[in-house]
Amino acid sequence: MTDQTEAQHILELSRDLLDDIELDRLSADKLLLKANRLARLTGSEETQQWLGYEMRGYNSQDDLSLRYMTLTGRWTDYENQKGHYGPLGQHVATIDATKARIEATRLSGDGTNIGYLHAVTKSHSTLVLTIRTLAGVQSRVLGLLHSFVSGVFYERQFADVVESTFEGYKQEVDALIAAKAGDVLTKIPSVVARLKEENEEAISQALTTCRRILETFADTIFPPSESTFEIGGSQLKLDASKHQNRINAYISQRCESNSRRSRLRQNIGNLFARVSTGIHNDVSAQEAYSLFLNVYLFLGEVLHLEEENVAKLTVE
Questions:
Q1: 283 pLDDT band (50/70/90 cuts)?
Q2: Containing domain of residue 142, as a range?
Q3: Residues 144-171: b if buried by 16+ CB within 10 A, e if exposed
Q4: Domain endpoint, select from 159, 175, 209
Q5: Are 29 and 143 in a shared domain?
Q6: How many domains does the chain divide into?
Q7: Residues 58, 68: contact at Cβ < 8 Å?
């Protein structure tokens, strides 16, 4: 099963389990087995162990068992470690059998016999207490189960929305890069490949490629020239070595918002500084991956700028 297929399966399984719990569609045993599969797929070891107690019974030796005895309201005498150690299915069966017993005594016997009525009433009180206690255990188990399943569902649903949103944006950015800066697109797979290796040399090579991506991007969208471009009263050189200046000139020609221009200029400055510094200094795989994503998203935002705002170059 691929990662994408497994993620989709987890989302669908958690959604189905929520319906099972909320609509009371499955018996306790089947519900626990299904929930255990979800816990296994999500790698939730504690939940798997807890569900094991619910399916096979609790014990007084394991700390986790004792903790969930408390969470599910199973204690009858905590100090002496007495309680309902049996599995959930057993408690549900006891509830059903006890209800049937109460109903049977209501339909039989001599309703005029005072002694009999007193005995039945006393017996019913005990049986009702048993039902109430075990039903409380069942309710707490279902509550904990619902919290676990809903947590998985909403987490995966959010991840699915983010993934689908990013994938749609990625396709759009890839198309823009291919159309306006095709040479950049060919360098991206090598960065991803290096980052997956997660060693210092590979990370350094990945950052070097990120810098080359930015430089190639600058050469493509704004080729070097002997001209200058004015930004904030300063004349920026646009020769072959001034990649950052040329990207800033491209942005200034197409972006009317001062705050957005300032943010993009700051971003490109930080990116150039970090990918260059990272070649010689230690950078974790996580930071390197974040830098690569930042570079990619930056390219996408710049290429989305409207062409209709292009201004004239100031020729020196």
A1: confident
A2: 3-159
A3: bbeebbbebbeebeeeeeeeeeeeeeee
A4: 159
A5: yes
A6: 2
A7: yes
